[in-house]
Amino acid sequence: MLTFSAARELVISQALQHRSPRPALSLPISDALGHILDEEIRADREYPPFNRSTRDGFAVHSSEASAGAALHCIGEIKAGDTVHQPLSPGTCVQIMTGAALPPSADAVVMIEFTRRSGDSVTFERATQPGQNFVPAGSEAHAGDLALSPGLRLGFAELAAAAQVGRSELRCHPRPAVAILSTGDEVVPIVPTPGPFHIRNSNSVSLEAQVKLAGGAPSPLGNALDRVDDLSAKIELGLQADILVLSGGVSMGKYDLVESVLKGMGAEFYFDAVAIRPGKPAVFGRCRDTLIFGLPGNPVSTMVTFHLFVIPAIDILSGARPRPLPLLHATLSTPLKEKPGLTHFLPAQLTWPTSQPQVHALPWQGSGDITAMTQANCFLMVPADRPDIVAGETVSVLPRTDVL
Length: 403
Ligand code: AMP
Ligand code: MG
Prior knowledge:
- The chain is of the alpha/beta class.
- It has helices at residues 4-18, 155-163, 201-213, 227-237, 257-263, 298-316, 369-374; strands at 25-28, 41-42, 52-53, 57-60, 70-77, 91-95, 107-110, 114-117, 120-123, 133-134, 145-147, 168-171, 176-182, 186-187, 198-199, 216-223, 242-246, 267-270, 275-276, 282-286, 289-294, 327-331, 335-336, 342-350, 357-360, 377-381, 387-388, 393-398.
- The longest helix has 19 residues, at 298-316.
- The chain starts with a helix and ends in a 5-residue tail after the last strand.
- The relative contact order is 0.13.
- Adenosine monophosphate (AMP) is lined by residues 181, 183, 185-186, 198, 200-203, 246-248, 250, 252, 295-298, 367.
């Protein structure tokens, strides 16, 4: 059976082969968060555009502002003021943070290290040339590359685009991700369910996970455990770039997802992974659509989406697949799990000191959504290290939606 990392590698290599160029979109900057940039963005001028003071104080010629020296203050410069006049010998000018230095000034002295008496300013410390301002062009020159194609647009990247005057950005479209739950027992969330029915929570968690990952979800509801209903709804899902199914991939008599997909021409790259929860996870392709058959137990669905679907969404979004953002933490309560499988246990990461600590939460197994709401991470128990004592360092996969 594949390890989870070998299974991820398979997803990545198949998704890379599968990536078909779709036309880029021009998006207003306010809608571009999380999209992948599909153009070069260059600096339109020098950054900063002028010698920018980083302190409130006095702009000086550094050679004239030695400890104990006094200069005549000729006025003030605020952020946004137009500044052309060079500083005359023997003078200084009061300057605010963000304002432009006069052309010949080569230092700013913080107001805290000066004494003022009328128009005379006395300096208490030695002044170094270059201190307390950012020279024009030191962050970027006009024409320099500010953002490269393939970059994910987070808040800093959007600020960089705004800084160089871009209000529209050419981006890759989000991949379309169809979501289909399966199960005769699965019913919509609104009407009161029958005593043996289960509300369709997986469609909701999957839709949220798709959005968080940067995909465009299209929920298709639920298919009954019947060949005709499954094939009709899978057929709809094959219009998307990725189809994510939940349930129907275990060994039960009514677990029909794999056989129905096979009948529709799907090929499979794996149909089990050595993990718990989530062992029966299936990955394949049918026509032009990548297919994930995730086990239906809600925590299994969540874990397997995190491990396997996110890299496919990354790649079809035009990005490089994000590595699993594993952190290290000290285990605070001992663990004993079944060997041979890598476990991903709902767990809580805390920072009682500078060293993070983690403990697995009590749970009733992979159907326990309630335990998941207490969890801000999954604690990874390696297949070959099923016994871990308190105090050892372990890896955890944070839930980046809540942490
Ligand atoms: P399955 O993978 O189809 O064998 O389902 C495993 C367990 O997950 C069963 O207890 C199902 O009732 C439950 N389950 C399956 N699909 C869903 C769903 N969409 N929402 C909530 N629970 C589900
Ligand atoms: Mg089922």
